[in-house]
Description:
14 helices; alpha+beta; two-stranded parallel sheet; single chain
Amino acid sequence: RQGQREREHRIDLLTFQSNEIRSFEPIICEFAELQSIEARLRHSDQISRAVNQALDSIVDQELNALDVVNSAISGLEDAAKLDTGLDAILEPIRNQIFGLQESMRDLRVYGESVEADPQRHEDTLERIEGYRKLFRKYGDDESGLLSELEGMEQELAELVDNDADEGELSRQEEEFAQQLQAKCDELTKLRREHSVEFCRQIASRLEGLAMERAKFEIALVPKLPDHDGADSIEFLFSANAGEPVKPLAKIASGGEISRVMLAIKSVLANNAGVPTLIFDEVDVGLGGRAAAMVAKLLDELATFSQVLVISHLPQIASRATTHYSIRKEAVGGRMMTQIQALDSNSRVEELARMIAGETITDAAAAHARELLNWR
């Protein structure tokens, strides 16, 4: 309803403005021409005097400049009969006299058109002022006015075409609401059907990640329909037997969340559409078979996305295609983080340090090389 009122106000404004321009009938380049006409009308007396004086001096008086020049040329033509060399000089002079005669005829016509006309002067001034008023409101020149008018008329046509009464809009709203609800019901049904298998696969992955007693469920809470459907979706989790499932985001530790997310991403795999995944110490509290399982899942994810992993376990680090060592060192009285890309030799050394500690044994180095060969 508010939009309809605003639309009607806009139609009224555009109608007034377009009529103002259209009724004036602007013409391209007319404003400059009007200014020239106005200047001629304003100074018509002075212009007429100057034209008449020029005509009198050159052609109208009993003794005028044109007659004097013609008389001089006549004398030169008699002399040219005695010396043909004068003909080459006389020819351009004759052409100039001919041009002067033509100009005098044009000047006489112009002089006859210049006369005081108060009414025309007033009409011209009024038209000029009309242009200036429109320029201030709609454009810098006649082209701008016509372009603005075209835009107004196009918007008016669209507003009129989009006219719809409140009853029709209400009917459409109800129809679309029914369609939306039907789509939401279909989506909810699909979610309920697929959530069972999804949760089963998540639980299977968690079991392999040393969380044998963990439970994972999905809650679908009804909400008002929108572009996501009519369900608020929440992951529910319990890490220990006998504990009820609760919202994952509220009860899980950092390591638990990382492992649950690893399980979710491994189930979704190539359907996730996420270019980069980051796992921060997903191996906390793991060892042996569970660590190997985490390494296997991370390796599988890396075939679909870029996977960045912060880990302290050699089983996981050995699976990476690129290995960085991160250490904190005191530099100039401040702790600085040092990051170093490892080559094949330094990588064996770093993995051996993960296995044996600071004292690297031959057995630890051999185990490190064995882990790399497995990759």
